[in-house]
Amino acid sequence: MNENWEQRVTAAWATFDDYPEERAAEFRAVIDALVAELPADSPLGPFEQACAWDSTGHSDKAAPLYREALARGLSGYKGRRAKIQLSSSLRNIGQAEEGVKLLTPELDGPSDELDDAVRACLALCLSSLGRDREGLSLVLGALAPHLPRYQRSMANYARALVDPDD
Length: 166
Prior knowledge:
single chain
């Protein structure tokens, strides 16, 4: 889509906090109006609508829209966001295993600023499945590089949680 449309979407999201819970439908209508400007087969439409449903507390309505966006070919940065957000929604609706399957390959994908979000969301999915040690390992591993000290120790502890021989 063109830059102007992206700017208007960004501007709409900047007003999200202006919509209290009882006005969530109004915010979704703003997003729907922007989506209506897109070609019918654009992956951006279902992605933005999924984000709006998700952000207003409706993971059940968001998940199919994220899937649709990905099926239509949403890729790159927004595709990765869709996978993270879909995994979170799946966890919220009791399908954490599917979230794990979706995010695990992202651990080996190209690195970007979403790496820690991948690990955090994957950790939540793992915890929902009773795999807390694996989740904690991911979170500690993501946190370690951001610490002013103890980076090596925390990275080692993270590995030891899932590989005691390490």
